[in-house]
Amino acid sequence: MRQKRSKSYRKQMLVYNHAFKFRAPYQIIVDHEIVEVADHSGIDLVKYLKNTVQDEVKPMITQCCMQKLYESKNQSAISLAKNFERRRCGHKDQAIDPYDCIDSIIDIKGQNKHRYVVCTQSIDLRRKLRHIPGVPLLYMNRSVMIMEPLSNSSDAKQKQFEQSKLSGGLNDIKAGKLVKGGNSTGEAEKEKAGAKRKRGPKEPNPLSMKKKKPTAGDNKQEEGPKKKRRRKHGNKNSEDKQDDGAEDNTDNGAQPSENLEENQSEEKGTRDELEVGNDSD
Ligand SMILES: [Zn+2]
């Protein structure tokens, strides 16, 4: 049974980490009652908390809960609570009901803004806090610390989170961050992503453009040799030579190469003769 519970708590904390961005050491708000229970039964409260959330913890107690303990004059409970960090609640001048106090620091516009885990013996407070998504709730049942199962509001939020991930893929996770982190960073990320995407096509394009420009020039030069081949025949036929001159003004520049080609053509005489033969056919 213990192992089973431990496993389910671990899974639950993973949900809080994943969907609600909880991180160890977990800040755990303990109420005055749980301190008294721990003191009375002699259990190591911090150890229990650690074992339940299965990571490092940072227990905290509000000023109002502390005030309640002072009123009880339970010295050992007070000294135990003094080990915990005091959470300022703004009720120091006039302490309010400890449970209202805890509720006031958890429920910030319907969100558990500071990502507190709450360890309280008050059933009413736990019932209240179940309506706020992402509030891990702990309490003592005799000598066992219990973590409440994921509340309906937490479960709905978690499913919504998973759904957004499934439907949107990676982009939606960034979008999820946008909501919390602010639009400016998200836009910057989008711009970066856009720039990266642009870089892809841009990089090859200039290269291909560079190649294209010379090839465009080369084509003209290539046109020359093609014509030269004609001219080779043209050398034999004066009419062709005149046509070439009318088509292309670069004839003069191409002439030296023509001479070279003539030399080459002498070597490749047989090939040219074959070509001429084909042309004549
Ligand atoms: Zn308070």
From TrEMBL:
Q: Which Gene3D superfamilies match?
A: 5'-nuclease
UniProt keywords (A-Z) are: Nucleus, Ribosome biogenesis, rRNA processing
An example GO biological process term is:
rRNA processing
Annotated region Disordered: the residues are 152-281
The entry's localization annotation reads: Nucleus, Nucleolus
Asked if the keyword DNA-binding belongs to this entry, the reply reads no
Similarity field? Belongs to the UTP23/FCF1 family. UTP23 subfamily.
This protein is called what? U three protein 23
What is the species of this protein?
Answer: Saccharomycopsis crataegensis
